[in-house]
Specification:
Layout lengths: L2 H8 L2 H8 L3 H10 L2 E2 L3 H10 L5 H5 L6 E2 L14
Parallel strand pairs: 1-2
Helix pairs in contact: 2-3
Length: 82
Amino acid sequence: MSARNIIKLFGGIKAMAKKAGIPPGSISNWWNTDRIPHWRIDAIEHAAAANGIDISTALAAQPDATLSQPKSKPKNIGSTHV
């Protein structure tokens, strides 16, 4: 399921913003990119539970690509002196 479908379960961008306490501009960005930052999932799950919205199936069916993953930092391989 896409990020857009999760937003729809909340009743749209403005409704989700109000229920989750997240700026509407952020949620609008999720709508446009069809991605939700991984670090926002806990807040979304909490807001869904507090408002009687079941998103467990939506999150379970959501492909990993729908959740924005943190960018990995390049590994410091150190200097090589010969």
